[in-house]
Design a protein that fits this description.
A 6-stranded antiparallel sheet has the order 1-2-3-4-5-6. α1 runs antiparallel to α5. By secondary structure, it is of the alpha+beta class. The radius of gyration is 21 Å and the shape is globular. Helices cover 38% and strands 24% of the residues.
Length: 180
């Protein structure tokens, strides 16, 4: 989805764009980042080749916002056009696949080619299943409750940021162009 703002009704446009993401049974997001400033040269080199692809789909066929948590997800960590790691959540299990050969394309990685080949031989190109019971055994219940509380706080922060951006856009003088 892309976001376009009209010269009037900015808040409605932002709210509608955010709401429309949850109104679909599937959403795909591609994220990339950049850095600048003193001391960021190495980080910028890495960020220039690393990206994330995220895909979410409702298992019920309903809109994501109406799926009551019944959502499968996939996150891929990419280096250039190659996937370094793919993580899938299906029902309550996680599946992870690694392609260690992508490590050689990350600037500043000091792992030798024989080491990368060894990692690839052992773990590369295979799906590893991490059942919920295994994950739960390593995460204390207090940490889960804390994570849920943090998620609610994060959602409130994101909503506030969108509201603040909307306020700035609305308060900024603009000139209406022909055609809108």
């Amino acid at each position: 989805a892309s976001l376009g703002l009209a010269s009037c009704g900015v808040k409605a446009s932002l709210d509608q764009a955010v709401a429309s993401l949850g109104a679909q049974p599937t959403v795909q997001v591609h994220l990339s980042a950049s850095a600048s400033g003193t001391g960021s040269a190495q980080v910028e080199k890495v960020l220039s080749v690393v990206s994330l692809d995220m895909s979410y789909s409702s298992t019920t066929g309903a809109a994501l916002s109406d799926s009551a948590g019944k959502i499968n997800s996939e996150i891929s960590v990419n280096v250039g056009s190659q996937s370094l790691a793919t993580i899938r959540q299906v029902d309550s299990n996680l599946y992870v696949m690694l392609d260690a050969s992508a490590l050689s394309a990350v600037p500043g990685v000091t792992i030798s080619q024989p080491e990368i080949a060894s990692i690839q031989l052992i773990a590369g190109g295979r799906w590893f299943e991490l059942p919920t019971s295994l994950i739960d055994s390593y995460i204390p219940s207090s940490a889960k409750a804390k994570a849920q509380a943090q998620s609610a706080k994060d959602t409130a922060i994101v909503r506030q940021i969108l509201d603040d951006i909307t306020s700035v856009i609305s308060a900024t003088p603009y000139k209406t162009l022909p055609g809108g």
